[in-house]
Amino acid sequence: MKLSGREKFSYGLGAVGKDMVYMLSASYVLYYFQDILGVTAWVMGVILLVARVFDAFNDPVMGIIVAKTRTKWGKFRPWLLIGTVTNAVVLYLMFAAPPALDGAGLVAYAAITYILWGVTYTMMDIPYWSMIPAFTEGGKERENLTTLARSCAGVGSAIITIVTMLAVHALGGTDERLGFKLFAAIIAVLFVVFIAITCINIKEKSTVDMESASVGQMFKALIQNDQAMTVVITIVLINCSIYLTSNLVIYFFKYDFGGTGWYNSYTLFNTFGGAIQILSMMVAFPLLRKFFDTIKIFYICLASAIIGYAVLLGLAFVNMSNVFLLFIPGFFIFAANGVLQVLTTIYLANTVEYGELKNNRRDESVIFSMQTFVVKLASGVAALLASIALSITHLQSGTEVSAADQVIDFAASVAWSSKVGLRMAMTILPIVGLFAGILWFKRKFILTEDKMAEISEALKARTHD
């Protein structure tokens, strides 16, 4: 029996909720603890790196636990609901640090809540994606539902990117600490409601054996599959570059671009960037694919991102007073990032066939488990680099709480050297990372379209033998 419209809507709504939560944590936890609460930047960087690496290793463990679960409600929905409720509570606590805490106590609070947030998010994220085979019939239905869920996840991320700072200032005025606390509470409640709707309307129709790759299997597959290793390192280099900028851009608007309504410009820039990134995945990639092979598109996108960063660096040293000027480099960077996400997924998939031919073993589930692992690793490394940059440039507003009617232009009191350091960190470092990605990829990657055709023919011949 095919999925009803209600089931599709319910599953997609769950994706919106969970990625709203993920984006709020991924994009604003460093800013909240470092800039608003006053935790030392490099300390926050270490916390974020350790937590995200731990979370990446925790993924396969949670996968094994879910795979062994047997209840009358199925194996997936119980963990999905439990993980959602606990994650929502931890999310609120993370953005509601007690005012009495400071120093070592505040650092401990940040570390504990962030690590718990990662663990509880994994608790619901693994079963959410793994349950698709349990209520779909396969083929086109399964593919369409996965596409729908990924699109809805993008909507959830975009909502947070666009509305967060506007909502924080609407709820808390100039007291960002209060604003984040109230906003996190709203998102936590919406998260629970959305996932509850998913659990109520989605029924597990079949018993599915869920493959879960261990950490040992992931590293073994990497060692034995040189092309998987090449793609993984390339993803880390690219994502570190992009994530570094995304961690620092809020500081750029607050302390450099400036103005009492800096968060309005920040929101407008993010809205434009999110739209361009989605359009590049849906429109630009298919269009480029008509004229170029994937390798050429890859180099075009990396060149586009580097050009965007170079233009951003140039604009940063002129008297910026119009956010629309930043749309020029933003277009090149966001468009490139959207297509690169598609390409790296394609390349990772191609390494499965390569590994099957080379090692006589198809490590599909293992290879795609690594995608989550390296994305989290890259985000942790980028957060550490961003925190080091913030520490060096001494960008932090402190822990003071302003009166609700007080208007502050933070950029007015920031030293010129700090602004220069921030500009260089968010442009030159990503350029270096992207160039490193180009050199590594060009030197090591061999899976051209002709090569993949050869591999496909060889696998067919092996099957017929």
Rounded Rg:
23 Å
Q: Report the span from N to C terminus.
A: 38 Å
Principal-axes geometry comes out as: globular
Largest sheet: none
- The tally of beta strands, per DSSP, is 0
* Average pLDDT for all residues: 82
How helix-rich are the residues, as a percent range? over 70%
DSSP strand content: under 5%
Parts with pLDDT < 50 across at least 5 consecutive residues? 398-405
Helix count from the secondary structure assignment? 16
Structural class: mainly alpha
Order of helices and strands: HHHHHHHHHHHHHHHH
Short account of what is shown:
With 465 residues, this protein is mainly α. It has helices at 5-36, 41-67, 77-94, 103-130, 132-135, 139-172, 176-201, 215-224, 226-257, 262-289, 294-316, 327-359, 364-393, 416-425, 428-444, 449-464.
